[in-house]
Protein 1
Amino acid sequence: MQTADENAYVIEEFRPIRHDILAAGLRAEAGDPHRIAGDPRLLAWLRVEGEQIGVLALDEAAAAAERLSTLADFTQDLVLEKVFADGRSVTWPRCLDRTHGHPMVVALDDGRALWRCPRDARLVVPIGELEA
Ligand SMILES: [Zn+2]
């Protein structure tokens, strides 16, 4: 059962991640909230470039930064696994240091949800604030 409130909640929760994917030139959205028996989380479909690529799970009970980092983690896993451009998997989000070939990783630091370079912990950007 999908309610208007759940739909608005999913869109709002996904907003920072949508922004960060858009910074990479891809359109993404989360929608069609639903629940399955035995899972207390709210589930939603992730679409990238109009294509459903997987299911996101939102833990409404967690603290805000934790919710955001978890959602970013889920999204990143799906994007790295399922999104291709010109036959190659997409590196998302690209490291702030463009000479690094790797994507950044999700980190929780002092109550903030961040993207962080896996090699240089000084390279960080809050999730939702990536620039193109
Ligand atoms: Zn890096």
Protein 2
Amino acid sequence: MIMIDKDTVRKKLEEMFDIPFSVQMLNENNEPAFVIGPEDPGKEFFTVRIYIRNQIRLMMDFIPQKYSVNFIHSMGEQAEKGTFVSYWKLMKMRGAKVTIKVNRKEIDPADVDSWPKDWSVFEARITKMPIVEDGLPDYESAVIEWGSLMMGMVLALADIVPIETEPTLKGYSEGEIKRTEVNRYERNPLNRKLCVAANGYDCSICGFDFQKVYGELGNQFIHIHHITPVSKIGPGYMIDPIKDLTPVCPNCHAMLHRTDPPLQPEQLKMILMARTGKMLFSDFTQQYKVAEENIKYDIDTDK
Ligand SMILES: [Zn+2]
Ligand SMILES: [Zn+2]
């Protein structure tokens, strides 16, 4: 018996992408299937259909909506396709088969220049089998994980995700435009999601793990830093959020930005290692296990 709560799926997606979602559950031959998508009263966008077959195979299809012609056309016009390609690669790295067709012809993630310029039909099918390598999967987590990867991939080409903007950094009038540019990429919620899906939530420099130290309060908290120097970010540079972004704690992040251009993460790691002989927190264990359940707070997710 596969138990999946559609409201949990919806809430998780809304948390991740910060837009309203709708999630429908279908029952086909006693096997669960979901239709998820951004809330879309005008039927202008898309849904993703997720099926679980024989408890072992997860399949997802992109389903255009009645009036999604303009949406698909605008996906093709999106100049920044790096995030889209990175989601695609990440799903392949995780063992899925990914087939994407534009105007009925399969496209190649390694050769963006060969893709059609004018998109009229978009198709995507992702198959993951087995859903997990050992034992029975947690189906709800699998639907959330894979659904969010597919959603992130499509939304990476859409204009319906709000891009967070960095609050103005006081005292940095010089080079402020460059900073805003970098922060746009660092703070794009899709790039962030993708970076942590690939690299996790530990600081890549000192190893600090907010959840281990602060418990639930620190769950999924981490800064995202852009490694590639600003000078390389121009028209035509394709962001690869897995390689170009890295999770860092606010201390290490501040240290990286002490220099202009910022230090490379490897340089800062060497400084730290030279002084301490190790990544500070990589062997951090249970020292901070306190009675968390006695401490009450509300997490302000905007911070
Ligand atoms: Zn750190
Ligand atoms: Zn940074």
Protein 3
Amino acid sequence: MLTIKDLIQDPDTQKKYDDIKNMAGLKGMRSSIYDVNNSCNLRCKGCFYFSSDQHKVDDEKDLGKLKAFIEKEKERGVNYAILIGGEPSLSLDRLDVWYANIKCSSATNGVKKISRERFPSMRVGISLWGDEEYEKELRGINTFKISRDNYRDDPNVYYLYTITPRSIDQIPTVTQKIEDAGLRVHYQLFSNDQHVSGFDWSDADYQRVRDVMDEQLELRPQVVVSSKYYHQVLTTQTLLGRPFGWMECPSVSQAVDDRQPQPKRLAGFNSFASDLATIHRCCTSVTRDCATCHDGAATMSWIMVNKRDHMQSPTDFANWVDVTHMFAKLYEYVPW
Ligand code: SF4
Ligand code: SF4
């Protein structure tokens, strides 16, 4: 059995390991996901939120009940709330309650600005599908320009950029525009939930997108929040020879997780609907086929929870540290 001392053989890995070791603290990373509301000001093509009817739950509007719910979640051990939607920027009164009571970040489509005066230190992740024309095609308006203007030079904002097999060539230009706007980006790959023709990934697409993501990470390490190992796992859908899928996924809600044997998973993770009672199957949608799921957070988490399997060689361990450090940066456990 190799020790940590044997496994860490370069200063970069040592520094990142020290960061995440310190961060692990008493309870480590304990996040869960919450739908803030059940409405949105856009209707993007391919949106799983609406196509899987996640909006058809009652929407809990009582702020007192929300505060009590957050307290119960903290008692459950959650120390970071990932707020998604619907569209959180449409329910600022609810964001106020989240922000005042637990460390949290908010997703948004970026069209309506989440005010920095009101939420000075909230991490904001803007969903992005591609360059201006592509955004118009998929979302009806040029949200990329609007969101860049809304959040220019904000040090606590990043784009969550979902790349499709048809948008690979846009990656350099889009990333350059994000850099020019003084913002950051994290990549993930499109999952073709609705089996739209032409949007399935081929082996050649996987190789190409991996090369381009790697290249951008090398060119712009301060802008691209990522890791080559994450790109590798994302584009091969395998981890140390094991294929991704339902029996490996770490991001299944604990409340509904009856898998046997239990795989390594995120401790205490649940994904709540906006009624604060319904629990989604996982961090995406129940209609998604696990065999073709490319969810970025599930992929990062998959690597992260399988620490022990990465302790067989210094290279594997450096890869594990790199991805865990990236996850910790995105979710504010360490500064970026
Ligand atoms: S902004 Fe998000 S929630 Fe709204 S329609 Fe688009 S993908 Fe769906
Ligand atoms: S759809 Fe993706 S995130 Fe959800 S359970 Fe399946 S593999 Fe996990």
